[in-house]
Amino acid sequence: MPEDKEQIRKRASYKGQITAFSNYLNSLKVSSLAATEVNELQLRISRIESMYERYDEVQLSIECNTDNIDAQISERTDFESLYFKSLSLAKRILADCIKSDDVSSDGGSHSGNHKFVKLPTIQLPKFNGSYDNWLEFHDTFMSLIHSNDEIDDINKFHYLRASLEGPAAVVIQSIEFSAANYTVAWTILCDRYDNKRLLIQNHVTALFNIAPINKELSVNLKRLIDQINKNLRALESLGEPTKQWDTLLIHIITQKLDAKTYREWEESKGRLEKDTPITFDIFLMFLKNRADLIETLEMSNSGATNRLNSSIKYAPKVKAMVSVRDTGNKNGSAFSAKLCPKCKGDHKLSSCPQYLGLSNDVRLQLLPEYKVCFNCLNSGHYANHCKKPGCKICH
Questions:
Q1: CA 344 to centroid of chain Cα atoms
Q2: Are residues 16 and 102 in the same domain?
Q3: Which of 92, 182, 285, 300 could make a disulfide contact with 157, Cβ separation 3.0–4.6 Å?
Q4: Which part of the chain is the CCHC-type domain (predicted)?
């Protein structure tokens, strides 16, 4: 049975790669490996480890299509012997380097009377081709990888490929993986995405397309502030005169506010002197203070609701409503009718500041406990016998 020449050429390529790896290991000066050489060794080991499965697939195909099986078994034995010896030697060298680094680090920490603290690894940012994230990715990658002279070009290329996703990865996909091509790949990527006009247009569009706020919540206002700051900082770094856009920016953002916040802003403007210029910084400070105030009220209402639910859960049940008119002591009944059932103050429940400060849902939950009329909030009768008119708005 004729042997597949293409498979034989592939096997020869794998044998050449493992031979080159063995020669590389023999050329290393193990006693004085630099940090970049250790990193390169790690990358080479990772590549060699993934190569065996491909070799085994090719060799198995050749063995199944040959008449001289003994020769092919000898070929496999020679390859595996060189492969495993080289890989074992590489891992031992790498382990010795890591061990020596740990010992030197421990020795330095003891001699300096300092404890060694392992800081968390900085994760490289991911870039998927979105112009929104280009400036952040570019500056971070430049700082950590591109401008780091201790990292050689082959490792920089490896980090670059690992950081790209989606359309961004396709841009440099066809470039051959080598140290000489790292600068080419980085230049092509910058030429594609470091387009000042497109970046400016993208961030301006993002300002106009900010989602409107439908409900006055602190989380919504804070999200709006973050989106404004992100796009304005990007535009400023691109050289746009954002400090001169105050009136336009205020108009754009106020159209995104809910009705209550917009009214508060108009009232806030009215309290300023007529000749005082209304800058965007003043408007942004108003949004920040408004978000803080709403967050404080939300936390307060949440705490009051939790306390109310707890009191309702453990409150004793009252079987009948006691009327103050049926008491024998007129003075006592008159005095008790004046006391507020919420705070025990000398006023009616309808004018109690603590009760009025609660939400409508919490008020409705409290009324059965106070045994008062749901219409006028006075004790002594029910709503179906109340003579006072109801709400003029919702009836």
A1: 49
A2: yes
A3: 182
A4: 373-388
**Residue range 180-199: mean pLDDT, rounded:** 83
pLDDT band at 41 (very low <50, low <70, confident <90, very high): confident
Asked whether residue 117 is assigned to any structural domain, the reply reads no
Shared domain for 238 and 273, answered yes or no, is yes
Whether the per-residue pLDDT at 255 is higher than 60: the answer is yes
Q: Based on the fold, state whether residues 9 and 103 are members of the same structural domain.
A: yes
Under 8 Å CB-to-CB from 348, ≥6 apart: which residues? 338, 340, 377, 378
Gap between the Cα atoms of 320 and 312, Å rounded: 17
Query: Which of the listed residues 108, 139, 159 is the one where a domain comes to its end?
Result: 108
Residue 346 in domain: yes
Query: Which single residue is written with the structure tokens 């081709």?
Result: 129
Alpha-carbon Rg for the chain in angstroms = 38
pLDDT (tens digit per residue) in 109-134: 444 444 555 556 667 778 888 877 78
- What pLDDT was estimated at residue 86? 87
Q: Other C-beta atoms within 10 Å of 308: how many?
A: 16
Distances (CA, A) of 171 to 127, 163, 185, 188, 192: 12, 13, 8, 8, 8
Tell whether 53 is covered by a domain: yes
**What pLDDT does residue 101 have?**
62
DSSP SS3 for 127: strand
Question: Averaged over 320-341, what is the pLDDT?
Answer: 50
Residue 266 has pLDDT above 50, yes or no: yes
Strand partners, 339: 346
Whether 310 maps to a domain, the answer reads no
Identify the domain containing residue 372 by its residue range: 338-395
Please give the angle made by the CA atoms of 113, 118 and 123, to the nearest 5 degrees: 155
Mean pLDDT of all residues belonging to the chain: 78
Give me the helices (H) in the chain, please. Answer: 5-27, 35-64, 69-111, 134-141, 153-163, 166-171, 182-193, 196-208, 218-237, 246-254, 259-270, 280-314, 330-338, 353-356, 360-370
Q: How far is the first Cα of the chain from the last one, in angstroms, to the nearest whole number? A: 97
Q: Cα(346)–Cα(30) distance, rounded to whole angstroms?
A: 89
Would you state the torsion angle of the CA atoms of residues 224, 225, 227, 228, taken in this order, to the nearest 10 degrees?
110
Q: Same structural domain for residues 231 and 282? A: yes
